[in-house]
UniProtKB/TrEMBL annotation:
Keyword Membrane among record annotations: yes
Organism this protein belongs to: Myripristis murdjan
Chief location: endoplasmic reticulum
SUPFAM superfamilies assigned to the protein according to its UniProt record, in alphabetical order: Metallo-dependent phosphatases (SSF56300)
Record InterPro entries: Calcineurin-like_PHP, Metallo-depent_PP-like, MPP_MPPE1, PGAP5/Cdc1/Ted1
MF-aspect GO terms: metal ion binding; phosphoric diester hydrolase activity
Family, similarity comment: Belongs to the metallophosphoesterase superfamily. MPPE1 family.
Biological process according to GO: endoplasmic reticulum to Golgi vesicle-mediated transport; GPI anchor biosynthetic process
Gene3D superfamilies, A to Z: 3.60.21.10
Name of the featured protein: Metallophosphoesterase 1
Any one GO cellular component localisation term in the record: endoplasmic reticulum-Golgi intermediate compartment membrane
Length: 392
């Protein structure tokens, strides 16, 4: 009986140590995963704050937030939800999870009153079948769900309906039906006007969609007192123009900052009607509306440009980690007469990968140490070395 009991008594500590190792392993792996995929967005976005407009009537509230006279607008761009054809399923899953967590955390922490997405919502809207389109739209609504306190305004981009030569009424109307609005219109909130433009249709070649958009723009420019001259007489007017294509600029050579285009790409010349709007279309927009601020996407990189020494434009980088290591969005405080901007950077992909790699290296080290300890290999190893030493 005593002999039979002995092996069990000897195995008990091995069994317990193995289970402790498994529990530690599960705890560490799930902790790292939870941090990298969920928690990391909170400290990063908590560092961001709404910019203050110092001379707004009413000033700040008790908690430092702008008071009700200020409109809190969040601006992001180029989400490029992968479609059914391009991209690996894991890439799709990961990018959409990242964007969903970033957006939902930003909504919860920052509570914007209006959110603009500056086009290229979908990567394959330009060619997707009706079934694939509906699937893309369903995932978009899940990712960018929001309460009625926040208004979501979506602009059209070339990946949503195709470049000018691919665009047709079917794709445009399909997009407008999903987002329940025409792509060229004025949105007014708290007395602040935003001119939304279907910039894909500003080709100026007289195509039916281009003609329709131009007619609408002429009508809007007449209806709105957006000119600088009128603004100086009536300070409570003035519009901002979020759109997909940037106004014409030669290249990104003058762009600076941590999210500007890489140095080797900055000097590449932009092609009119492809990378940026044509010179003519850009001038027409500026002359008709004299916007106090232009916000654009499409280039996937950040930039600040001043057109004609008086019209500032901000290029908003892509919100998708597939396009950037460091996506970001713009926080804008608008009053009817003024505005202030700040940029909110999201967790860098390289940081997340570094955390996973460090955790993996630590676990590998612990696993090896555990194996060596359990199997007594250290002792074996030293005995072997000793044996070799003696034989020498
Ligand atoms: Zn684009």
């Amino acid at each position: 009986c005593v002999k039979l009991m002995m092996p069990n008594n000897k195995e008990m500590p091995r069994f317990s140590a193995r289970w402790i190792a498994v529990v530690v392993l599960i705890f560490v792996v799930s902790g790292v995963f939870f941090f990298c995929e969920y928690l990391i967005y909170f400290p990063t976005i908590l560092k961001c704050a709404w910019p203050k407009i110092s001379h707004v009537r009413g000033g700040e509230g008790i908690d430092g937030r702008p008071m009700d006279s200020t409109l809190r607008a969040m601006v992001l761009s180029d989400t490029h939800l992968l479609g059914a054809v391009g991209g690996h399923w894991f890439d799709k899953l990961r990018r959409e999870w990242q964007m969903e967590r970033a957006f939902q955390t930003a909504l919860w922490l920052l509570r914007p009153e209006i959110v603009f997405i500056l086009g290229d919502i979908f990567d394959e809207g330009k060619w997707s079948s009706q079934k694939d389109w509906e699937d893309d739209v369903r995932r978009f609504h899940r990712m960018f769900r929001h309460t009625t306190d926040t208004e979501l305004v979506v602009l059209v981009g070339n990946h949503d309906i195709g470049f000018h030569y691919e665009m047709d009424w079917f794709k445009l109307q399909r997009f407008e039906k999903v987002f329940n609005a025409t792509s060229t219109r004025i949105v007014t909130k708290k007395g602040v006007n935003f001119l939304l433009v279907n910039s894909v249709a500003l080709h100026g070649d007289g195509c039916p969609i281009c003609q329709s958009v131009e007619r609408e723009l002429i009508k809007l420019s007449r209806d709105l007192n957006c000119s600088l001259q009128q603004r100086s007489l009536v300070p409570l007017t003035g519009c901002s123009a979020p759109q997909h294509y940037p106004l014409y600029r030669v290249s990104d050579a003058g762009c600076t900052g941590q999210d500007a285009a890489p140095p080797e790409e900055r000097h590449l010349l932009f092609r009119e009607k492809y990378d940026v709007l044509s010179k003519e279309a850009s001038q027409r927009l500026l002359q008709w509306f004299k916007p106090r601020l232009i916000l654009s996407g499409h280039t996937h990189s950040g930039c600040e440009v001043l057109h004609d020494n008086k019209y500032p434009e901000i290029s908003v980088p892509s919100f998708n980690w597939r396009n950037r290591n460091n996506p970001s969005f713009i926080l804008a405080s608008f009053s009817a007469g003024s505005y202030a901007l700040s940029k909110c950077f999201l967790p860098e992909e390289s940081t997340v990968i570094a955390v996973y790699c460090s955790a993996g290296a630590c676990l590998l080290f612990l696993f090896l140490a555990h194996c060596l300890w359990m199997k007594g290999l250290l002792q074996c190893f030293s005995l072997c070395l000793l044996g070799k030493h003696k034989s020498l």
